[in-house]
């Protein structure tokens, strides 16, 4: 502890450095830990109170080594709790609680992370702000999040970043957002509040989404999409929003269709689509459906509660699967 005065904290800048801390409290350092190489493992610790617009933990470019935080509490930072400028090694963060980071809980660029079982508490502007990051993030609890920003913001995710089991309440901005992503891979996302999810110029796979609103706002937005690959949504539940899905593109030929499979959507306007083609398979849709622009939207094995409104050359096609069973004397016979 600095006893009220800030100090430089623990600095690791050599690949030959080794530091293993267990049950350690670090207070009033700016930053508390600066990691630029070596082997660092911190377990069962408490880190708090940085100043001078510095994070609690700062990770810089390194050549080899290891980094591990487990069973930790990080709180009361000036700019963010963890700032990762660049990392060539796997950064492991397990069972960590974040509170009052002021800025983002974790801000990372050009990094490889493995994050599991973390709590994003109150007092932070954002949860994870990630750009050009790969690895995995699993079991994120953001039910206490109250920031003006996002629970997760993803930009330029073009490689292998898998995100699974996120539960949270949105703050003043979309819960999960981002732009210019080529390889989104999100699974088991449960968000309450508006706006739920908002992506721009992004493709990839979103699976098992549950979005619940308070009677206003939009659940899911995709604007512009990508022409190189599609955005696919598998398993979607939307309830109690003004708008369920909002799609917009600059023109019908500027993006591949959004693929939606196994969906239940209930909103005042379930689908609001402009210049963005779409293919829907096995969906139950309650609410207005509005299509605009010279696009084609295909519905397979889907139920709609209301007629579709078509504007400016939009068209909708409906297909229903029909199954035939061959029987002889009430015995099912194989067919070819």
Summarize the model shown.
By secondary structure, this protein is an all-beta fold.
Summarize the helices and strands and which ones pair or pack.
Blueprint (H helix, E strand, L loop, with lengths): L9 E3 L5 E5 L2 E3 L5 E3 L2 E11 L8 E3 L5 E11 L6 E3 L5 E10 L2 E19 L3 E19 L9 E4 L5 E9 L6 E4 L4 E9 L4 E4 L3 E9 L5 E6 L7 E18 L9 E17 L3 E15 L3 E5 L2 E2 L3 E4 L3 E5 L7 E2 L2 E2 L4
Parallel strand pairs: 1-4, 2-5, 3-5, 4-6, 5-7, 6-8, 7-9, 8-10, 9-10, 10-11, 11-12, 11-13, 12-14, 13-15, 14-16, 15-17, 16-18, 17-19, 18-19, 19-20, 20-21, 21-22, 21-23, 21-24, 22-25
Antiparallel strand pairs: 26-27
Describe this protein's structure:
The protein is an all-beta fold and 336 residues long. Helices cover 0% and strands 61% of the residues. It is built from no helices and 27 strands. The strands form 2 sheets. It has a 9-stranded parallel beta barrel. Strand 26 (327-328) and strand 27 (331-332) form a beta hairpin. It is elongated. The chain starts with 9 loop residues before the first strand and ends with a strand. The model has no long low-confidence stretch (mean pLDDT 93).
């Amino acid at each position: 502890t600095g006893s009220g005065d800030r100090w430089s904290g623990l600095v690791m800048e050599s690949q030959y450095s080794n530091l293993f801390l267990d049950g350690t409290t670090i207070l009033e350092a700016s930053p508390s830990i600066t990691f630029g190489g070596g082997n660092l493992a911190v377990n069962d610790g408490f880190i708090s109170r940085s100043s001078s617009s510095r994070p609690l933990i700062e990770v810089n470019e390194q050549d080899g080594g290891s980094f591990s935080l487990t069973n930790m509490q990080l709180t009361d930072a000036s700019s963010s709790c963890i700032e990762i400028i660049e990392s060539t090694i796997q950064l492991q963060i397990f069972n960590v609680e974040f509170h009052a980071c002021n800025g983002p809980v974790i801000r990372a660029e050009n990094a490889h992370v493995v994050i599991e079982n973390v709590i994003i508490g109150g007092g932070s502007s954002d949860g994870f702000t990630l750009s050009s990051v790969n690895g995995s993030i699993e079991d994120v609890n953001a039910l206490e999040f109250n920031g003006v920003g996002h629970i997760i913001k993803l930009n330029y995710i073009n490689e292998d970043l898998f995100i699974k089991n996120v539960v949270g309440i949105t703050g003043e901005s979309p819960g999960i957002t981002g732009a210019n992503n080529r390889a989104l891979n999100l699974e088991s996302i449960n968000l309450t509040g508006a706006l739920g999810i908002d992506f721009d110029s992004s493709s990839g796979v979103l699976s098992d989404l549950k979005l619940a609103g308070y009677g206003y706002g939009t659940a899911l937005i995709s604007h512009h999409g990508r022409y190189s690959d599609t955005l696919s949504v598998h398993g979607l539940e939307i309830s109690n929003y003004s708008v369920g899905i909002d799609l917009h593109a600059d023109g019908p030929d500027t993006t591949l269709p959004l693929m939606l499979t196994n969906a239940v959507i209930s909103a005042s306007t379930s689908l609001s689509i402009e210049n963005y083609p779409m293919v829907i398979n096995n969906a139950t849709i309650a609410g207005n459906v509005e299509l605009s622009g010279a696009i084609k939207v295909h519905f397979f094995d889907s139920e709609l509660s209301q007629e579709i409104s078509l504007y400016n050359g939009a068209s909708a096609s409906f297909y229903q699967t029909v199954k035939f069973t061959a029987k002889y004397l009430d015995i099912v016979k194989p067919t070819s």
